Amino acid sequence: MAKLLPYSGDYYLWKYVPSIAGAVIFILLFICTTALNGYKTWKNKTWFCIPLVIGCFMEFVGYAARASAAGRTDSLMTFSIQSSWILIAPTLFAASIYMCFGRLVRHLHAESYSIIPAKWLTKTFVLGDVLSFLIQGGAAGMLIIQNLATVGKAMVILGLVIQVLSFGLFMVTAVIFHRRLVANMARRVERDVDWLGVMRMLYAVSGLIMIRSIFRLVEYGEGVDGYIMSHEWTAYLFDAVPMIAVTGIYFFKFPAQLRVGVETAGEYDGEGLTVISVPGK
Fold first, then answer.
1. Which of 186, 196, 214, 240 is most deeply buried (CB count within 10 A of its CB)?
2. Rounded CA gap, 84 and 222, in Å?
3. pTM here?
4. Three-state DSSP class for 269?
5. Are 125 and 171 in contact (CB under 8 A)?
6. What keyword terms does UniProt attach to this protein (predicted)?
7. Per mean pLDDT, which of 38-42, 85-89, 106-110 is the most reliable?
8. What Å distances lie between residue 62 and 11, 56, 85, 164, 258, CA to CA?
9. Structural domain 20-256+266-274, CATH architecture
10. Is the dihedral of CA 74, 78, 80, 83 positive or negative?
11. What is the pLDDT of residues 47-75, one digit of tens each?
């Protein structure tokens, strides 16, 4: 029977023995979303979705390491892999979300409705995302070294704060863009892109990542002796479940219409809207 083993002396990497069953469930789920989103990305040539696919794979590897850790709670490498890969994978989800929004804005020729200039729109959010990724990735290794744990914790919190602020700005930008687009369109939508469906998908996945990021902020704010790090169920409920939901929602509302080479065109009637045109730049 698996038991909690010390890494060194009386220092324990874990506060509990990880659940194999819980980890296996998400291993299977994330390998499925990796394959499904990967297939749609390849089929539709939506290369901006590659970061999300990589993030799915990182989640899979993270939970595989977590399952392995159940019988090796004294293994530094196993703990490090599951901790760091699960921690930073959502930043890759965010990168695809930002690029998806940027492509939608350009596809609709509605750059003037964005509060951030079109040429900086994607760059601004992805830059914040990369910064968050690098800080959290660099900090993950420090957390498991006792004399650097405090610095590592501070860096993780900083990375998460950057992610939360970036997502907050993104959501404000998206909502304002949405409202301006609806207010100015002449009772029209584009035939080749379900822009409203894409926006709803972006709202849903962004909200889930925001919830997860705030959870992680509270977790690291509490520290290793806090309730969250001492109870495994919290990690599954507020991290694993929201993130698998993100990858599932993205798959079912996959933005295939924004693939390379697609231009705005055509008109159609639907949901009471007569399609005419979206105002230009």
1. 240
2. 18
3. 0.86
4. strand
5. no
6. Membrane, Transmembrane, Transmembrane helix
7. 38-42
8. 22, 10, 5, 22, 30
9. Up-down Bundle (1.20)
10. negative
11. 999 999 999 999 999 999 999 999 899 99
